[in-house]
Amino acid sequence: WSRTARKVDGVLEVGGVSVSELVAEHGTPAYVLDEADFRARARAFREAFADYDVFYAGKAFLCTSVARWVAEEGLSLDVCTGGELAVAQRAGFDMARVEFHGNNKSVAELRRAVEAGVGRVVVDSFDEVARLTRVVAETGTAVGVMVRVTPGVEAHTHEYIATAHEDQKFGFSITAGDALEAVRRVLAAPGLELQGLHCHIGSQIFDTSGFEVAARRVLALHATVAAELGVEMPAMDLGGGFGIAYTTQDDPADPAQLATEMTGIVEQECRVLGVAVPHLSIEPGRAIVGPSTCTVYEVGTVKEVALDGGARRTYVSVDGGMSDNIRTALYDADYSCTLASRRSDAAPVLGRVVGKHCEAGDVVVKDEFVPADLAPGDLLAVPGTGAYCRSMSSNYNHLLRPPVVAVRDGASRVVVRRETEDDLLATDVGDQS
Ligand code: LLP
Known about the structure:
- Substrate binds at residues 286, 327, 331, 359, 388.
- Specifically catalyzes the decarboxylation of meso-diaminopimelate (meso-DAP) to L-lysine.
- Belongs to the Orn/Lys/Arg decarboxylase class-II family. LysA subfamily.
- Homodimer.
- With 433 residues, this protein is of the alpha/beta class.
- The chain folds into two domains: 6-32 and 290-426, Beta Barrel (Lyase, Ornithine Decarboxylase, Chain A, domain 1), CATH 2.40.37; 35-288, Alanine racemase (TIM Barrel).
- Helices cover 30% and strands 27% of the residues.
- It is built from twelve helices and 23 strands.
- The chain has helices at residues 19-26, 35-48, 64-72, 82-90, 107-116, 126-139, 178-188, 209-229, 255-273, 286-289, 327-331, 421-426; strands at residues 6-8, 11-14, 17-18, 30-34, 53-57, 76-79, 98-100, 120-123, 143-150, 154-156, 159-161, 172-173, 192-198, 235-237, 279-282, 293-306, 312-318, 338-339, 348-354, 363-371, 379-383, 404-408, 411-416.
- The strands form four sheets. Strands 4, 16, 17, 18, 19, 20, 21, 22 and 23 form a nine-stranded mixed β-sheet that branches.
- The chain is globular and about 70 Å long.
- The termini are far apart.
- 48% of the residues are buried.
- Ligand LLP is lined by residues 57, 59-60, 78, 101, 200, 203-204, 239-242, 283-287, 327, 331, 387-388.
């Protein structure tokens, strides 16, 4: 839950706004974004990682308001497509503080980024190094470059595998020598200004030892570049991926603790390797925006089914589903929910919150105890939906994407409006022949 979320006589209040009032004004489903919470988390990262650049990973969720908050809180911005770049430009984000990611940026995207004056492009393939070199030559400008490397670490939530993960699409392999070759090519390319190495080991990570192993491997390459090519790269990016609590079983590290650990590892390793500590950066997305938002749905139908063995499960259908939160269906993610519109003293029963899509896998919350008297018209709130929900949303079954309603100090305002049927039909140009 976001920090200002609380219940007043059974009614959920976020940012000083009662969810019932919010729904009366904006309807359901709606993403409710707690601005103060977002800003507090952004600030916590910036303060804890004071000597770093902190890039907010826009892929988690981006709109012009959020881009503005990111700028105001002193963070930089990571975008990974021309579309995300367009949002940053519309928001008037300082392009020097934008970093451009992606494993298949088009020539048009690269040109747009270079012309806009982005601070750096993170290159991910030899093709891209060549492409970017051409773009820079054509536009007559130079651009900062980071080389994304594969540190051979794959992290998943509570674990990491330190020998795996060469077999995926991102980055240059360190072990195969591609990373060193990429550094060579960037150094040789006119207009590409090498800033340093970049790595990102995964998302929703709790086990910080994965970061440690990755940092050591990337620093070893950083030292090799210094020794063999005589170049001490000024920067290094350790990526994002810091986990958040989706259920009470998750116990995420706080930014200050992460900063202490990560800085400690880097400083120690640099001493051992005899290189200067590069200017570090990180790219948290989920850990900033994830907890800031909850999704509010209206209950439409309630159905009890018998399970093998005689137990029962209550299927609670809400007015959204996998189109506004694909994470349960796609990643088997765990979410929780709460009755948000009233107090209930009814006994808890085992429930499952499902959407309104024509698909059995359309589940939002797999298992949660809900009050036995839950009924159509009740509001349910699902916390922790700020990251990778709206940004991965779809129009499956021609549902309209919900709005993002920002709340702060007792007031709400729409920052991304609800889609309309006109929006839906706008691209359907019909048979023009
Ligand atoms: N930097 C890079 C290069 C990334 O690829 C990502 C995420 C991040 C930073 C931000 O990671 P975060 O701090 O948000 O974990 N859709 C998935 C997550 C995909 C993450 C992709 N890259 C999900 O919903 O769990």
